[in-house]
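Take a careful look at the sequence and tokenised backbone pasted below. I need to know what the token row says about the fold.
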Amino acid sequence: MKILVLSNMYPTDAHPTYGIFVRNQVELLRASGIDVDVAAITDPGKGKAAALKKYGGWAMETGRRLFGGRKSYAVTHAHYAFPTGLLSLIGKRLFGVPYIVTVHGGDLDQMARKSPKIRQMTERILKEAAHVITVGQRLYEEVTGQYEIPASRVSILSMGVDTDVFRPRERAAVRADLGIPEGEKAVLFVGNIIRAKGTTELVDAATLLDQEGEPVTLYLVGSVKDAGYTEELKAHISELGLDRVRFVGTEPQERLSEWMSACDVLALPSYHEGFGLVALEGMASGVRVVGSDVGGLSVLLGDDRGILVPPKDAGALAAGIREALDPDSRAFDGESIRREVARHSKDQILRELLEIYEDAAAGR
């Protein structure tokens, strides 16, 4: 089987975390023997001129691949309904290549709400897909409910976690390697440094804990996607007099697992999350997770797998972190966490994904 994967996010050496979850799935497919071509945007740069250049080049590259491989591609797999799925839709109409689309969250929560036209195009993309994959339960309900896609053509399938990479490490060793002092209460954030990830509330929560006599050190691991906001955040930290915040920058996945094993708490105070893959990776690495009660996190951290708090609420976030720091806390069920990690293992995800591809290809 030969497939073409399309994505408006894909990592490079210069931007190693930009759409890393898509590359991980591509590599999983290739390791299983699937012949995978990729047409993707690899530059996260913003601005109208940059957007026109990169999206125009991406569309031309996709068209070239579809025209050349129209007889050999069994399916195309689009990550994000719009704009990526539009290219797959065009490929189906021009060349008869069926397509799968994975909905990740931002494509429905943000992009489809920008205008009625984009909403209509998103609906058309979903309706003509051979199969729609959603990374979480809430997105599944939206796709089958608001968009009225038959449940028989929709599956919930996360991007999966590689437990060969994300696994518990020896705490003292990784702390020493990362320069985290023994005895320090370390709270980790992993994600893009943007307002919607709740980093302002996380800083405010750390300030509250400091005032309550339970100081923590924040380690912020991720890309600076919005330089203006990052400077605003640093100014806010300075105004609060909080001197235990470390901006780590981006890290490769092996290193991320080390950070997760080394820290006491992984905090994900996002305003919205399609699934919350970082939370799953943290669970697999053995760190306690505190996250916003939104989107996929609500399900992922349910059943005593983590602590859920309301978004945009620094006080509740501080209370959740305080509870997670308590070694005697009964908020975490180890067996429930292990079952959830196993349910999203890369082998299980691969089996289900290959079945979806085979069914779509058979329908061609």
